[in-house]
Amino acid sequence: MQSVRGKTWLVILHNAPLLLFVAVFGVFGCLSPRFLTASNLLNVLIQSSSLAVVAVGMTFVLLAAGIDLSVGSIMFVAAAVAGKLVLAGFNLPLALLTIVLVGLAGGVVNAFFVTRLGMIAFVVTLAMQYVGRGLGLLITETRAMNLPENLLRVGSARVAGVPFPVLMFAGVVVAAHVVLTRTAFGRCVYAVGYDAQAAVKAGINVRRVLAAVYIICGLCAGLGGVISVAQLGAVSPTFGNQREFAAIAAAVLGGTSLFGGRGGVLPGTVLGAVLVQIVENGLVIVNADPYIYPLITSAIIFLAVLLDSVRHAQLAKLKRRRIRVER
Predict the structure, then answer these.
(1) Which 3 state secondary structure label does DSSP give 9?
(2) CA-wise closest residue to 195 among 260, 114, 121, 257
């Protein structure tokens, strides 16, 4: 009986992201019929695009049992540099490319300190968070930069009827899913996150894999910055603020483990990112007190970590039982 209960509980934990998504969706749908309109649901998808792209990069890092607390600051620096270029008269495509390149450079810096100097990822990326935020404030002089209107037209553009943010979001998700599930590199990422020492014994270059995931995370931060800038048409001193926590929450809510080695971007991280945006959108629609927004967001992050911890403990317990049976 206990084994049946244990297996049932494990199935529930594995499907917790989907069950939570359905529950939250149903609650807001019951509270306000306007939430279920096609225009609002499309708006949720558009607004979640930037977060989803950043969360995809975070998923790579978490799968390798790492952490990156600098993505929001990297987005800010990249957007600030691009904003200065646009206001100085440089063309828009170059400015948007700059955001991606600066994001990539931020990932390279993180990778260097973590893999080459052997520093703890938490410390490195936390330091980068403060450095990036400081650089961004220095570049913008703590003032909002209003960018040309043609930038907003990029954010609202449609390709074959599909909004530009959603198109970028879909492209990044599909590419990441293929890399993680259909390539040797993807298998190496899972192996390193599950057991780094075993991965070394299997001949995997752990240092190279770790460097790659931090670079990918920086690249995704840059791409997320492009979407955000195109949607907002401005760079404010709070641009990208706390984006790293939302990205971690989205990845973990989607089933990616903070302990590494388990999870995925499709449907996992996608569900998590859309769920975070559904909560924000739903609170606005039901006219909730704006002061409780941070409380709700923090509760979501807490729930994500709690689910992951319980799931990890259950899997560890199941593994111990299997070892005893084999003996």
Answers:
(1) helix
(2) 260
Judged against a pLDDT cut of 50, whether residue 117 lies above it is answered with yes
Instruction: Note the pTM of the prediction, 2 decimals.
Output: 0.88
The answer to whether residue 134 is domain-embedded is yes
Length of the chain, in residues: 327
Looking at residue 107, what is its pLDDT?
Answer: 94
| 3-state secondary structure at position 234 | strand
- Rounded distance between C-alpha atoms, residue 156 and residue 160, angstroms: 13
Q: Which domain holds residue 102?
A: 55-285
Tokens of 119: 């520093």
DSSP for 291-323, please give it.
GGHHHHHHHHHHHHHHHHHHHHHHHHHHHHHHH
pLDDT digit string, tens, across residues 230-272: 888 888 888 988 888 889 988 988 888 888 888 889 888 998 8
Helical segments of 64-203, H only: 71-87, 92-111, 121-140, 149-155, 164-182, 184-194, 196-201
Q: How many domains does the chain contain in total?
A: 1
Residue 115 lies in a domain: yes
Query: Which letter does DSSP use for residue 34 in this model?
Result: G
Q: How far is CA 4 from CA 1, 10, 11, 57, 154, in A?
A: 5, 10, 11, 37, 54
Asked if residues 304 and 253 have their Cβ atoms less than 8 Å apart, the reply is yes
**Which of 229, 278, 223 has the alpha carbon at shortest distance from 249?**
278
